[in-house]
Write a structure and sequence with these properties.
By secondary structure, the chain is α/β, with parallel strands linked by helices. It has eight helices and seven strands; from the N terminus they run αβαβαβαβαβαβααβ. The structure holds NADP nicotinamide-adenine-dinucleotide phosphate (NAP). Keywords: Oxidoreductase.
Length: 273
């Protein structure tokens, strides 16, 4: 054991050379997701679209999910194809168990066994609790909780050995925000189910992780200008997150290099938390 006060320069050299040896063991591999069959629930817009394009650049095969916006999904498919990947759109409301099941069927039929499953679907209902209705809660439960369960359970049944499952949560489950009680409450359930699942698939070499973005510039950003300015001020990196910032983290978690990361909730937020 070393403490900082009694550490000598020689100790420091020893520690540094040790860490170089360890890191060089894992750095010889070129990351490639080429041919990895991927389903992205909510791949049509925002972070899901940026993820589809990023994985497409790495020549993955992508099934691009949407709930109602077919035009957006088709646009994502075109962008993936332009970036070098293969893609097709599928319609699946994650609150519908059968639709999720069919999405896996369609992906297996088109590409083969599924290697990567990403669930970015969410309903974002915001407002002070006194103004929220039971209906607001039920809509959020249907997508953020039941939807997460449908996707995670189907992924657990069908994912290929050494696959990757990624569930989206939000930094809001760690940093309570005014007006976000239903959103963060229901996202926390999806997050927790995914982390629980990470304990169940180790015998197949499958990892399950959560990514929790901070405030990210998408259609899902439902804050006024002052709230966004205040969040930027609280962010050490001093800007709003872009979908590509988060998509790069997804790509890393899907890579071979991330094989030892399992059951983690990765905060992708510029350091606000
Ligand atoms: N943006 C942020 O600031 C932020 C912060 C923290 C966490 N997140 C999380 O990151 C993820 C992506 O958010 P985003 O902001 O990129 O989303 P977004 O731009 O608002 O897009 C929403 C996406 O969800 C799909 N969707 C909506 N309801 C669905 C349902 N019932 N079933 C399947 N798909 C559904 C939409 O499909 P259509 O195009 O068909 O409508 C669309 O692809 C979400 O899980 C969100 O909770 C976002």
């Amino acid at each position: 054991m070393y403490d900082l006060i009694s550490t000598t320069t020689t100790d420091l050299h020893r520690l540094t050379s040790c860490s170089i040896t360890i890191s060089s063991n894992g750095s010889d591999h070129i990351t490639s997701l080429k041919g990895q069959n991927t389903i992205i629930f909510a791949g049509s817009r925002g972070i899901g679209r940026a993820t589809a394009i990023k994985l497409g650049q790495e020549e993955a095969n992508i099934a691009v999910g949407y709930a109602g916006n077919e035009e957006a999904a088709n646009k994502t498919v075109d962008l993936v194809k332009q970036s070098g990947g293969q893609a097709f759109p599928f319609r699946a409301d994650v609150s519908d168990d059968d639709a999720v099941h069919d999405a896996f069927d369609q992906t297996e039929k088109t590409f083969g066994d599924v290697d990567i499953v990403i669930n970015a679907a969410a309903v974002s209902v915001f407002g002070p609790m006194v103004n929220l209705s039971t209906d607001d809660l039920e809509k959020s439960v249907a997508v953020n909780i039941l939807g997460a369960f449908h996707v995670l359970r189907e992924a657990a049944k069908r994912i290929a050995d050494n696959g990757r499952i990624i569930q989206f949560s939000t930094g809001g489950t760690k940093m309570p925000m005014m007006g976000a009680s239903i959103y963060t409450g229901t996202k926390a359930a999806g997050e927790s189910m995914a982390l629980g699942l990470s304990k169940e698939l180790g015998d197949k070499g499958v990892t399950v992780n959560v990514i929790s973005p901070g405030v990210t510039d998408t259609d899902g950003l439902v804050m006024d200008e002052d709230q966004v300015k205040s969040l930027i001020q609280q962010t050490p990196l001093g800007r709003l997150g872009q979908p590509e910032d988060v998509a790069d983290v997804v790509s890393f978690l899907c890579s071979r290099e991330a094989r030892w990361i399992n059951g983690q909730n990765i905060q992708a937020n510029g350091g606000i938390l």
